[in-house]
Specification:
OB fold (Dihydrolipoamide Acetyltransferase, E2P), 5-stranded mixed β-barrel, 2 helices
């Protein structure tokens, strides 16, 4: 019985973490994450397709929560879904990042980075992104 109560409580806590309502004052964001050693998406303008580094790809799709919207992660995480239906987890995004904070809005996003596969899921190690 205690396990059932604990599991129910855990599910409620996780559900509450993804229930933030978007504000109408939120604006589009364009940023470039810092080098791979850093843990959050940060400051400048995105790369363009003409300046892609070797091995980089440009993906366009819809921003969402890997757990709540796309059901591909066990915890809330910034993710994107492309027009072809592929879901990519956006690596290096902390809870204070605009990507994480805006993941429940479902807005358009373009990401440049390297695609990796881990634990059966596709991931993008971003070098830049643009939210519209």
């Amino acid at each position: 019985m205690q396990r059932l109560v604990l599991m129910t409580g855990l599910c409620l806590v996780l559900a509450m973490g993804c229930s933030r309502k978007p504000s109408p004052d939120d604006e589009p964001v364009t940023q470039t994450p810092p080098p791979a050693a850093a843990t959050d998406a940060a400051t400048t303008a995105p790369n363009t397709a003409a300046t892609l580094a070797p091995g980089e790809v440009q993906l366009a799709g819809t921003l969402g929560c890997g757990h709540c919207n796309f059901h591909t992660t066990s915890e809330c995480a910034a993710a994107m879904k492309t027009a072809s239906g592929d879901v990519y987890v956006l690596d290096g995004v902390t809870e204070k990042s605009p990507l994480f904070e805006n993941r429940l809005k479902g807005g358009a996003i373009t990401v440049i980075g390297n695609v990796l596969e881990a634990d059966g899921a596709k991931h993008v190690a971003m070098t830049s992104f643009e939210m519209k």
